Amino acid sequence: MSHRIHLNWFNSELAERAAAIARGTVEPAPARDAATVVILRASSLPGNAAEILLLKRPATMNFAAGAYVFPGGRVDAADADPRIGWHGPSPAEFGVRLGSSADEARSLVVAAVRETYEESGVLLAGTPDGATAVPGGPEWAADRLALNAGQLSFPDLLVKRGLVILADRIIPWSRWITPAAEPRRYDTRFFAAVVPPGQTADGHLAEADRIAWIDPAAALDAARAGEFTLLPPTAITLGEFASAGDDLAAFLGQLREITPIQPHIVASDGEAWLEIPSKAPYPL
Q1: Whole-model pTM over 0.85
Q2: Does the pLDDT at position 36 exceed 90?
């Protein structure tokens, strides 16, 4: 059975758009490819396998201001740059898991790595033999600032540092498609990855007010108490990791069936409700 929730950023205009799409008088906007990464680190708390990195969106954001999210964003044209090296399972193997072509899968994984580094400082890249990079020091800081300012491209950064994408550190997790009624839509592949040894996360102020390492169950409790705002895909993903138990490696090693999850906006009495499919249990 599906679950309906009312979200305060859905307004009468969106309700009218949902009704128009249902009538067939308005065409949905195309969904752009995007990627997001659940970054984890081992937890010392008994019964909890890991803590998860969350970024708080600035209050100035047009959408979901103040919400806690995973690092991520849309795929850019430069994510297909052929100069970007690769270590681990092939793009074709990722494509089978993600429901995409090999080229699309390659760009999605690169976007996931790029966005994670831009927003959190965690770099899922390393040397061609698979050794993890440990960014640090003033030169790395300058490069990251240049990257976020658009003065240095991610492919140029990797080439400059002699690094490749460490695809063997990146686990396909789920796929969420923005409801058809939304004017801006994304087809987002979720990935999971453990923070590499020696690396630390730090937020980038253009993308996050603050960062937090938090037990997934505690994040859900904070959302229930009104202390955190969580988008439905974030809450559902946290609910999945809250059930991980003590063995993180075993939990991440499970072979997940990744099928698209697309909530729907339903108009009722001039208001809009989000209807989430039953295959994605909503924990709040």
Answers
A1: yes
A2: yes
